[in-house]
Amino acid sequence: MDIRIYDVQYDDVIKSYYLTAGINYKYALNKLVPLIDKLEFQRNPLRASFYKRLEEDIQSGCIMPNITVAIKINRKPSNKEEITEQYLDDNMKNAFILDGIQRLNTLNRIDRTKLDLCRTLYCNILISDSMDRLLYRMITLNNGQKPMSARHQIEILAGNIFDFESLPILGVTEKEKKIRKRKDEENMNKESLIKGYLAYISNSINIDNQKIIEEKMNELIADKILNSNIADKNGEFQDVINFISKMLDDDYLNTWFKIVNNFIGFSAAMNLVFTQIQMKEKNDLRNSIELFEEVFSAIDVSKVKLGLARRRMVKFYFENYIEFSEYGYSELLDIISQEL
Question: Whole-model pTM above 0.70?
Fold first, then answer.
């Protein structure tokens, strides 16, 4: 076997197994290099000249720095003893590279005849049944490092989690339609879903603020994720998407969720209240949203930034849904107008 396990620990925060292991270069080239292109949002390789020194060192027999691999499975092993070298090999098809893409690209560029294919490449391997918790760990490990922003890490995971072609088209804002005139709906759907995912895991609607430079926006998102206690949640964003998909059978709810600012505000709120909302039937949810829309239509749009106000109030409304569901029109208008 070309894999050797040195240690297995359990991460109590992200409820995942953490392994220290070794593979040889032959296994890395055959099994890990193909994973580089597995995800649509993986970074393009940097110019070879950036890693020329490492390329030369590998051929001279250096120890390549550790890489990190994540294996997403539907059911975690019940104990450490289940995790064997054969188990890892069988599940490597479900893996993706968290850290080490450029190092693997460098290894792959070297002429095989100049490599000692039996040489060891050390790996950290995470085994988890939760993509959201994997994301949390990625952010804690990489936050502050410039090569991969929090947003890009989220895009990578979103690309691995969702089959965008099978998900309902959520639509885009009118502004985005004008900017992207001829973009196809599938690409628009990906952007909308990623924005919803960002809102959910950060418990924030402030995910694409153009007033903040990109680098600082990414830092802000990372900080919000780390402070949102996502690792302690029982649910997953996939559960939220499944719930919304069921609601789309209703024409009114279908139209409502296709407004991206509604989707973002709703997703942000679900970070805290999904266990309560997921029990709602279509008619109950529709009645609640119809009341919200009746109240929101009373807002003077000339006094607010409409898109931002809609995001904020959808989040505010659903985060307080249990209380607000008892309110009438006047009570809800009073409190929402003051919140704005």
Answer: no
